Every structure is written in structure tokens, then in C-alpha cells.
Amino acid sequence: MLANVVAREFDAPLDFAERKMRAKRITTPKQVLSYFLYYKAELTLLEVSKILGYKEHSTILYNLRVVDALCIDECYKAKVDRVAEADYDIYVLNKNI
After folding, report:
1. How far apart are CA 71 and CA 1, in angstroms?
2. In a designed cystine with 43, which of 2, 47, 51, 83 is the match (CB 3.0 to 4.6 A)?
3. How many whole angstroms separate alpha carbon 84 and alpha carbon 86?
4. What is the pTM for the complete model shown?
């Protein structure tokens, strides 16, 4: 699943998508996950925010901007690219991401 690929690449706990913590080791993978759910799964901002437990869709907009801005860093961009190239399934109807 996509969340497992992101967790492995960013060295995050497997349940990072469900956590409410603001620690960088949780927020960075959630930002990347929201990026892929929006652009690759073509979900709406509201759908992504509901899946990830955010109250506002504006948080997803912020996450998208952060991922774009951080892709300037080669190491970060390489991780995002590896997630993009990985083989994963996206199940959003039952919240398996």
C-alpha cells in the first residue's frame, strides 16, 4: 500500500497516517502521502483531508506546497521519486492507503 511505501522510504512508523503528532518524523511522511493521494490517486482536497484526519482541506494545500518546495533538496526529491516509482495499491474506500 502507498502508506507502507512512504513509511519505509521516510523511516516512519507504519501507522504514521493515523497519528495526530506534529513531530517531523510524522508530518513529513503525511505531507508526502497527501501529495500522492491528491496527484496520483486524483482525490479531492476534502477527500484527502478526511482520509488523513485533518479538519481543513487547506492543510492539504499547505502540504502540497511544502513537498514541492522541499523537492529542491536532492535527497528529499530522491525519496519522493522512489515513492513515485514504487509499485503500490491505493485503496481509499475503506481507508486502506
Report:
1. 23
2. 47
3. 6
4. 0.88
